[in-house]
Fold this sequence. Notes:
six-stranded mixed beta sheet; Deoxyribonuclease I, Chain A
Amino acid sequence: MATSVRVLTVNIHKGFALLNRRFVLPALRDAMRSVKADVVFLQEVLGSAGNGRDDPHYEYLADEVWPEFAYGRNAVYPTGHHGNAVLSKYPIVRHCNHDASIDGHEGRGLLHCLLMPPAATAPLHAICVHLGLKETHRQRQIELLQSAIAASVTPGETLIVAGDFNDWRSRAHPVLERCTGLREVFVHAYGRAVRTFPAALPLLALDRIYVRDATAHSPYPLPRSPWSRLSDHAPLAAEVGL
């Protein structure tokens, strides 16, 4: 019976290291496996063939470790598309991608997955988030997130919201806690969000793991190496009690 779930979130920068100089998807897959996460939240995942690969990047990363996965297409361009993905060791009962794009700007989305851990008495909700670069856009997208939670998540069922919030001014914390009851794992543990960007020398706290109706939650420390060489964002991981 699953009593806790280890989660990992990382913006994988379409499989490239900082400044797009090296394609690092195989090394990224190895690093992800080393965390032994049960559920993985990914942003900027290529959903079409690219860089010589015939399979979508989320399928390659899931491979034999995470048998269940869901993809939400956010941005479409002539050579393909990218979006958010959730990889899971647990069955994904259903999923829905909420379009959070602002007209005329890069596509953004909220990928909501309903998971069923073994012997669980209630489902686990996982929402993978990638918000915009502008404050006004993020405010509207946070409102969309609140609406999606209110419409689809039953009070008392464990909810995990993770991803790239681009919230460098930490405006989302009080709003999400007041309006949805979400609590950020690292803010609760350390009093502040963890700096994750740029990965090699983090200055800005852009990535988050929020939880609601969890029996417990705590950060899961990750080493700087090799993560600082695998994307422009550093990853975050946490243990969440069910």
